[in-house]
Amino acid sequence: MVAGGQFRPMKILIAVTEVAEVEDDFEIEGLGVAEQYLDYDLNEWDDYAIEEGVQLQEAGEDVEVVSVTIGPERSEETIRMGLAKGVDRAIRVWDDALEEREELGVETKADVLAAVVEDEAPDLVLTGVQSNDDAFGATGVALAEEIGFEWAAVVNTLDLDPGGSVASVHRELEGGVEELTDVELPAVLTIQTGINEPRYASLRGIRQAQSKEIAPKSLGDLGLDESVTESPITLTQLYEPETESDATVFEGSPDEEADQLADLLRETGVVEG
Amino acid sequence: MTVLAIAEHRRGELRDVSFELATAGRDLADATDGDLHLAVIGGAVEAFVDRLDREGVDVIHTIDEGEEFNHDVYVQAVEALYDEVEPDTLLMPNSVNGLDYAPAVANRLSLPLVTDAIDIEHDGGLAVTREKYGWPPAEGTDDTEVRAFDADIDESAVRSAVTGFQEVGGGDVDISEAEVLVSVGRGIEDEENIALIEALAETLDATLSSSRPIVDNGWLPKNRQVGQSGKQVTPEVYIAIGISGAVQHVAGMKGAETIVAINTDSNAPIYDLADYGIVDDLFEVVPALIEEFGGEPPEV
Ligand SMILES: Cc1cc2nc3c(=O)[nH]c(=O)nc-3n(C[C@H](O)[C@H](O)[C@H](O)COP(=O)(O)OP(=O)(O)OC[C@H]3O[C@@H](n4cnc5c(N)ncnc54)[C@H](O)[C@@H]3O)c2cc1C
Ligand SMILES: Nc1ncnc2c1ncn2[C@@H]1O[C@H](COP(=O)(O)O)[C@@H](O)[C@H]1O
């Protein structure tokens, strides 16, 4: 698309993370959930960010979409999902010093991502609102401040001409209210679920993803050292909150359970029949 | 220790989270015989001061700058105030707007950041527990010192502008008016299966609502969404079917009179809230329930 009569190539960087999902029944070992109870998947919010980036690419003429992940080799499976959906190439940052940390803090993630932004010089950075496991909800905004980009958090509508200099966004506030905001580029936007309909990867996409580049980088490659992994915050304990449940649980076969619930509903007087 | 807490307001209204911050801030200041400072940035600062002026608040700082929230202004204002007050701890709301400026403030001031805090204890350092919600509001009086503070905002650093607001989720149904809500979550798996829950709602003469993923997927319109970013509901009966009970969902339905959960996972947080539960497969229980009330369950 030609915006303002002028054509300009555009680069979009998407921060993509794999998240650990915990099975219904699990055990805690030390400061984490025991590995055998964890499954890894693409962070739900990042799936929407990928879709948004790929849609911008499809609307433009010369838009490159690059993903960046801080994660171990295992996360390449997640990264490939993005590549299969249309991301052009990927960067994966990992290092022994990162591996040693129980949990990467917001500061560490922002510092590492900032170094990648410096290398790549994107016009737009997309992150998810939050990662489903750490759930800091903070990496995107911290990154923006770190690199001096403008930003907007919790974006559920994005209007941007590829090549344009302002993104018009809706920020989803509480209680069914949206804020309409104009944001100057370059910017970081944290993407909320529901902004679009993430596509499924096509077979062709999955095949193509096999030959796309996932560039591995260490901290040293990015001009960083171990000190970025230091944090004034220490994880001291992980526990399962004691259930405060005092629910009356109906037991029996599904029919018996339904029967008891039906009696209850009739007793409340608000349901007839 | 000195605590500085930042109030939140939107479109002329102080938001309740401000009082939660004040209560948490007071507890924290008490643990060390310290002071609690509140700040209110922008909007009708005088009117907000009247409401924030409560027992246990030592100083209120007003920064009269703009009408609506703008993170570029907030970051600069909090930074300037931080230098002035030199607090040991800064408290900001874990709201959508809080998430839009707190991480930037922390990064700018090189302070460690903990989001989504539900408990804070002073143990030399701070021991913070994350996940979950809630403090009750504090008691009120009015002998608090109010200081107008000039944050000296650099307008050239303001690179985003609010151009308006929009209400979403209007339409023919108002789930917040319903007496009985039958609410469906991701446990329903497929769009076609929604018909099953619809049939239950119809049989019970109830209104159909849902958790967020159902709306995100486009399976139900936005006006059916219960939760933080949807509607707050207070029905007499709320039947949560295949809903885990995430904080953002609970924020919208915890005021229901009677809560019933149908969920295969007995550890799902919805059971912390539920008065009654069926720990079983919704695809077996819901048809049986429809039949109990003389309805005809659809094939799914
Ligand atoms: C800024 C922000 C705002 C948000 N606002 C909202 C909001 O307004 N409203 C909202 O709801 N969420 C909101 N969320 C999302 C929220 O965090 C959760 O992701 C969401 O509530 C989960 O929906 P769910 O319970 O339907 O799905 P899940 O959490 O996936 O739960 C599905 C449940 O179904 C159960 N289940 C599966 N199969 C069956 C079966 N056959 N029978 C019975 N049970 C079964 C599972 O055990 C599970 O507990 C928000 C998130 C953010 C970050
Ligand atoms: N390890 C990571 N690698 C790349 N991006 C990440 C990583 N962790 C978080 N992010 C990005 O930051 C967003 C918010 O994560 P968080 O602040 O951890 O809740 C995610 O949706 C990602 O876009």
What would you say this structure looks like, in words?
The complex is a heterodimer of chains A (273) and B (300). Chain A is built from 7 helices and 14 strands. Chain A has helices at 44-59, 76-85, 96-99, 106-120, 139-147, 203-210, 254-268; strands at residues 10-15, 18-22, 28-29, 32-33, 38-42, 63-70, 89-93, 124-128, 150-159, 166-172, 177-184, 187-191, 214-217, 248-249. In chain A, the strands form 3 sheets. A 9-stranded mixed beta sheet of chain A has the order 11-10-9-12-8-1-6-7-13, with helices on both faces. Chain A has a two-stranded antiparallel ribbon with strand order 2-5. In chain A, strands 3-4 form a two-stranded antiparallel ribbon. The longest helix of chain A is centred in the first third of the chain and has 16 residues, at 44-59. The radius of gyration of chain A is 22 Å and the shape is globular. Chain B has 300 residues and is an alpha/beta fold. Helices cover 28% and strands 23% of the residues of chain B. Chain B contains 8 helices and 15 strands. In chain B, the strands form 4 sheets. Chain B has a 5-stranded parallel beta sheet with strand order 6-1-4-5-9. A 5-stranded parallel beta sheet of chain B has the order 12-11-13-14-15. In chain B, strands 2-3 form a two-stranded antiparallel sheet. In chain B, helix 2 (45-52) links the parallel strand 4 and strand 5. The longest helix of chain B is centred in the first third of the chain and has 15 residues, at 71-85. Chain B starts with a strand and ends in an 8-residue tail after the last helix. Mean pLDDT of chain B is 91; it is low at 132-142. The chains are: A alpha/beta (273), B alpha/beta (300). At the A-B interface, helix 4, helix 5, strand 9, strand 10 and strand 11 of A face helix 3, helix 4, strand 10, helix 6 and strand 14 of B. Bound molecules: flavin-adenine dinucleotide (FAD) and adenosine monophosphate. Flavin-adenine dinucleotide sits between chains B (185-187, 211-213, 225-230, 242-244, 246, 248-249, 252, 262-265, 268, 281-283) and A (129-130, 154).
